[in-house]
Structure to design on (875 residues):
C-alpha cells in the first residue's frame, strides 16, 4: 500500500516504544489530570519523586498515583486512588493516574477478577498512603524543628499548628523520600473517612465520553502490521490444507501462515493472515479456504451435549461438602427433586480480543488490555523460552473483561505470529472469533433433592452439580480432584442438618473460563430456585422460609428484612408477581426482589428489580451502583437472551445476530440499597449477578404458577 | 487502491485506500481517529456509530466509497473538551463503565436530540435500541439523554 497522505490531520502520535526515564515502567499511558487530557507516555517527568511504588510527587506538588490494577469498567482506576488518597490526605480532583505495567515483585497481586481488587488492596494501599503522608509530615516537622505531633495535614498541605506556617507536599518531598518507610502505621477508622464511602465522580468518565480513552484496540506501535486468524471451528481439528498462495497474492497481504498455540492443554490450529492493514486482512480472510481434518474429534450436537449432562447426573462424583448423615436419610424418606440447566455462554466483551505483541530475539513486548498482567507475562516468557524479566507489559483500558481477558491464548497467538514475521503484530479477533471460540462459561446441570420426614419438615438437601471443572483443563491437572470454589454461591448458611454438595466433573473438549461470577452464576440459579420450590411445597412465604433456615445469621437476615421492606413484599400490587433470591458470593451478600406483570399479549414484563447488598465497608457507592446495574443486565442477558449451543462440534452462535444481548428497552429499573456497616469490604463486581435469574423465575412462578428450570427462556413464551 | 477525499469533522482528509473498505477502519486506522470503535462488523451493536450528514449510521458496514462528498462526524467532532450537553450529562450521570461502547452511544444520542430535542422515554429507548452495552449502562444512558434534552431546552447549556 502507498504511504497515506493527510490533509488537515496529523496522524496521532505513535505511542512510544520505550519506557519513561526515571520513575515509571514502560507504561502505556492513559493518565488523566484534566478529564480530557491524555498524559502521553513520557508524561511523567524526572522531577517526580517516588515515596513508594504507587505514589509520586513533583516539586510543584503534582501528585501522580500509579494504578497497578487493570481497569475493565469495574472502577479500579477510581477505587485504587481513593484508597491511597484517604490516608495521603490529598484531593482526588488534583491528581494524575498512571497505569502500571506488570511487576509481581513491585506491585504484588495485580490480577482483576473474583471481585478482589478492593478486598486485596483495602489495607496495603491505605498503608502506603499513610506511610507516605507520615514521611512528608516528618520532613516538614524537621524543617520547622517542631515535633511531628504539632503538624496537621489537609489537601496536600502540611500546617505547623503553633506558627501557622504551611508547606506543600512538593516542597518537602525530596527530603521525605530519604526516610525509611515507617512500619508502625495507624489507619483511620470508618468514622474519620473523608474520601472512602463517598460517591466521587470517576476519574475516567470524561475520557470515556470523548473517545480519548486508549483501549487495547487503539494502541499503535511503530512498524506494526495486522493479523486476523481462522481457527479450528471444532477447537481441536487439524489443518489438512489451505489455499496459501492464492490468499498471499491478495492486496495488502504480507503472509499467510499456519499457527498452532496452546489453549490450556490442547493445541489450537489456525491460519493467520498478516496484512498491512486490518480491512485488507479481513478481506483476504473471506477468500481463505481451509480443509480441516476432524478425525477422532467428536462432533457434538446440542442434543448430545445435553444428553451427556443428563446421563452424567447418574454417575457419582466428588462430595465436597457433607453435613449430617445423607446416606441414611435417603432411605425411606419422602423426596422432592428438580433439575436445572444453564447452557454455555460467551463473554462477548464489547471490545473483541486483541493485542500487539513484538518478539525481538530474546525479548518480548506486549501492548493491550488484560486482566492478568503477570499471568500473561509469565505465559509469554514460558512459551517463548525467554526469561520473564525480558517481557514488558503495557496495559491499556479494557473494553470489558468479565474473566475472558485474564486468559492467555490471544497473547500467545500474536507472539507466535510476531516471532515468524519479526515485526510487532496487532492481532484482532473478529466478533465471530470472540463468540464462537471460547473459552466459555461452562454449562451446568443441577440435580437438587430435598428429603422430608413424616411431619413434612425438610430434613436434608442435596445438590449434585454436573459441569466442566475449569481446573481440569491445565496440563497435568489431577482429575480426581474438584476445584473447591466450584460451589461458590451455593448457600451453606441455610443450616440444613443434612446437607451435601457433590460435583461430577465433565471432561469435554470445549474450553471454559471464568465468566462474571463464575460458577456462582449458575449455582445461584439452581439453589435459590430450589429453596423457593421448597417454600412453596411447604406453603411458606419465601422470605420467611429463608429467614427460618438462616436462624441467627445476622447479616443475611438484615439483608432479607431490607429487601422485604423496599420491595413492598407484603403489599404486592394487584396483577404483579414478586420473587426473591439471595446469593452470597465473593465476600458479599446480595438479595434481589423482582417485580413482574403480564401484558395483554401474555408476555412477562419486568417492572422493577430491588437490590439489597451487604458488601461491608464501601469505597465508592456510585461505582457499586454501576456494578450492580451491570451485573443485573449481564445476568438477565444469560437468563432471557443468550446461549452458546453446538452443532457439528462447533458453536452455532457467532455474532450478535444470534448471540442476543439485552438491549436498552429490556433493561429494568433498578433500586439499590447498600447496607451500612463496618464489616470488611466484600466483592462488588460480581455478587449482584447470581440472584437475578432466580429472583426473576421465582417472580414468574409467583405470578403464573409456572416454574422455569432451564435458561435462557423467552419472556414472551411463558 | 483509490485516492479518496473525505470530509471528517469539518476537515478534508485524503486517504489512499481500497474503495470497498468499511468507513470504520478508514476513520480509525487511515485517518487515525480512534474514538470510533469496532464491536461486531455487521451493524448489530452500534459501537461504530458516526454521523453521515447528521444521520447516525453504522460505519462498519459502509464502504468508504459511499461517503465521498458527505459530511462525516465522529465522536472527536462532537465538541472540544466534553462541552456538548450530551457529554456533560454522560459525566454527570456517571454513565461509562468500561467505556468502549460509549462513543457509539453518544453519537446515537446526539443524532436523536438533533432530530427530536425533547424525546420522551419511549422515543429515547427506541432510538437507542441499536446500541449494545455489555456493561449494562442502559438505565444511566436513558437518564442522561433525558437530562441533556432538558438542559438543552432550558438553555442551561
Ligand atoms: S461494529 Fe458496527 S454495528 Fe457493531
Ligand atoms: S460501558 Fe462497557 S460496553 Fe458499554
Amino acid at each position: 500500500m502507498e504511504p497515506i497522505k493527510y490533509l488537515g490531520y496529523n496522524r496521532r502520535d505513535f505511542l512510544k516504544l520505550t519506557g519513561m526515564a526515571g520513575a515509571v515502567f514502560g507504561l502505556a499511558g492513559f493518565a488523566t489530570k484534566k478529564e480530557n487530557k491524555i498524559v502521553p507516555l513520557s508524561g511523567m517527568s524526572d522531577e517526580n519523586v517516588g515515596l513508594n511504588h504507587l505514589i509520586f510527587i513533583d516539586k510543584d506538588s503534582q501528585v501522580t498515583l500509579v494504578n497497578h490494577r487493570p481497569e475493565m469498567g469495574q472502577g479500579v482506576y477510581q477505587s485504587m486512588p481513593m484508597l491511597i488518597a484517604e490516608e495521603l490526605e490529598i484531593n482526588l480532583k488534583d491528581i494524575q493516574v498512571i497505569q502500571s505495567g506488570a511487576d509481581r515483585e513491585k506491585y504484588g497481586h495485580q490480577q482483576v477478577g473474583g471481585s478482589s481488587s478492593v478486598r486485596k488492596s483495602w489495607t496495603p494501599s491505605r498503608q502506603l498512603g499513610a506511610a507516605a503522608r507520615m514521611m512528608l509530615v516528618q520532613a516538614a516537622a524537621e524543617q520547622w524543628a517542631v515535633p511531628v505531633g504539632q503538624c496537621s495535614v489537609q489537601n496536600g498541605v502540611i500546617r505547623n499548628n503553633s506558627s501557622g506556617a504551611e508547606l506543600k507536599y512538593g516542597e518537602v518531598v525530596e527530603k521525605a523520600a530519604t526516610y525509611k518507610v515507617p512500619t508502625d502505621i495507624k489507619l483511620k477508622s470508618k468514622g474519620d473517612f473523608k474520601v472512602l464511602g463517598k460517591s466521587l465522580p470517576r476519574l475516567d468518565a470524561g475520557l470515556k465520553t470523548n473517545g480519548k480513552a486508549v483501549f487495547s484496540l487503539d494502541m499503535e506501535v511503530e512498524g506494526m502490521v495486522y493479523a486476523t486468524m481462522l481457527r479450528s471451528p471444532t477447537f481441536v481439528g487439524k489443518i489438512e490444507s489451505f489455499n496459501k498462495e492464492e490468499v498471499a497474492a491478495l492486496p495488502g497481504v504480507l503472509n499467510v501462515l499456519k499457527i498452532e498455540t496452546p489453549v490450556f492443554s490442547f493445541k489450537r490450529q489456525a491460519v493467520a493472515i498478516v496484512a498491512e492493514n486490518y480491512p485488507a486482512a479481513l478481506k483476504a480472510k473471506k477468500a481463505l479456504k481451509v480443509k480441516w481434518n476432524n478425525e477422532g474429534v467428536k462432533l457434538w450436537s446440542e442434543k448430545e451435549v445435553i444428553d451427556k449432562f443428563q446421563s452424567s447426573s447418574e454417575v457419582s462424583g466428588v462430595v465436597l461438602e457433607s453435613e449430617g448423615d445423607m446416606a441414611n436419610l435417603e432411605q425411606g424418606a419422602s423426596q422432592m427433586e428438580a433439575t436445572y440447566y444453564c447452557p454455555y455462554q460467551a463473554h462477548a466483551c464489547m471490545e473483541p480480543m486483541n493485542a500487539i505483541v513484538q518478539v525481538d530475539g530474546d525479548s518480548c513486548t506486549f501492548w493491550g488490555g488484560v486482566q492478568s498482567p503477570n499471568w500473561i507475562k509469565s505465559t509469554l516468557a514460558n512459551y517463548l523460552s525467554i526469561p520473564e524479566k525480558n517481557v514488558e507489559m503495557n496495559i491499556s483500558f479494557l473494553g470489558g473483561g468479565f474473566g475472558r481477558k485474564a486468559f492467555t491464548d490471544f497473547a500467545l497467538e500474536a507472539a507466535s505470529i510476531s516471532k515468524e514475521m519479526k515485526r510487532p503484530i496487532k492481532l484482532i479477533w473478529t466478533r465471530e472469533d470472540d463468540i464462537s471460540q471460547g473459552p466459555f462459561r461452562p454449562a451446568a446441570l443441577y440435580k437438587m433433592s430435598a428429603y422430608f420426614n413424616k411431619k413434612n419438615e425438610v430434613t436434608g438437601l442435596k445438590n449434585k452439580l454436573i459441569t466442566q471443572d475449569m481446573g481440569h483443563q491445565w496440563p497435568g491437572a489431577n482429575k480426581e480432584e474438584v476445584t473447591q470454589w466450584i460451589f461458590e454461591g451455593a448457600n451453606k448458611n441455610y443450616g440444613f442438618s443434612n446437607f451435601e454438595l457433590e460435583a461430577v466433573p465433565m471432561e469435554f473438549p470445549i474450553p471454559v473460563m471464568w465468566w462474571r461470577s463464575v460458577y456462582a452464576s449458575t449455582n445461584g440459579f439452581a439453589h435459590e430456585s430450589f429453596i423457593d420450590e421448597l417454600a412453596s411445597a411447604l406453603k411458606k412465604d419465601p422470605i420467611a422460609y429463608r429467614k427460618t433456615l438462616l436462624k441467627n445469621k445476622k447479616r443475611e437476615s438484615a439483608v432479607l428484612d431490607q429487601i422485604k421492606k423496599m420491595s413492598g413484599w407484603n403489599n404486592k400490587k394487584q396483577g404483579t408477581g414478586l420473587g426473591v433470591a439471595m446469593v452470597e458470593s465473593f465476600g458479599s451478600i446480595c438479595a434481589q426482589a423482582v417485580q413482574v406483570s403480564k401484558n395483554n399479549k401474555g408476555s412477562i414484563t419486568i417492572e422493577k428489580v430491588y437490590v439489597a447488598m451487604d458488601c461491608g465497608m464501601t469505597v465508592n457507592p456510585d461505582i457499586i451502583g454501576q456494578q450492580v446495574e451491570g451485573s443485573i443486565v449481564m445476568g438477565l442477558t444469560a437468563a432471557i437472551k443468550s446461549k452458546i449451543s453446538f452443532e457439528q462440534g462447533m458453536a452455532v452462535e457467532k455474532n450478535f445476530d444470534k448471540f442476543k444481548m439485552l438491549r436498552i428497552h429490556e433493561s429494568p429499573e433498578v433500586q439499590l440499597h447498600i447496607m451500612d456497616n463496618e464489616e470488611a469490604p466484600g466483592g462488588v463486581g460480581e455478587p449482584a449477578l447470581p440472584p437475578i435469574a432466580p429472583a426473576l423465575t421465582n417472580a414468574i412462578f409467583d405470578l403464573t404458577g409456572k416454574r422455569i428450570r432451564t435458561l435462557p427462556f423467552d419472556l414472551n413464551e411463558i | 487502491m483509490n485516492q479518496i477525499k473525505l470530509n471528517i469533522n469539518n476537515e478534508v482528509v485524503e486517504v489512499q485506500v481500497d474503495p470497498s473498505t468499511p468507513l470504520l477502519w478508514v476513520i480509525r486506522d487511515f485517518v487515525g481517529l480512534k474514538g470510533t470503535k469496532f464491536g461486531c462488523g455487521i451493524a448489530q451493536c452500534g459501537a461504530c456509530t458516526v454521523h453521515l450528514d447528521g444521520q447516525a449510521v453504522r460505519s462498519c458496514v459502509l464502504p468508504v466509497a459511499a461517503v465521498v462528498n458527505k459530511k462525516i462526524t465522529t465522536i472527536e467532532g462532537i465538541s472540544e473538551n466534553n462541552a456538548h450537553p450530551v457529554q456533560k450529562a454522560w459525566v454527570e450521570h456517571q454513565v461509562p463503565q468500561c467505556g468502549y461502547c460509549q462513543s457509539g452511544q453518544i453519537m446515537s444520542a446526539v443524532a436523536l436530540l438533533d432530530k427530536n430535542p425533547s424525546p420522551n422515554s419511549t422515543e429515547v429507548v427506541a432510538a437507542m435500541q441499536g446500541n449494545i452495552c455489555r456493561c449494562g449502562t442502559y438505565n444511566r444512558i436513558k437518564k442522561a439523554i433525558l437530562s441533556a434534552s432538558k438542559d438543552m431546552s432550558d438553555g442551561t447549556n
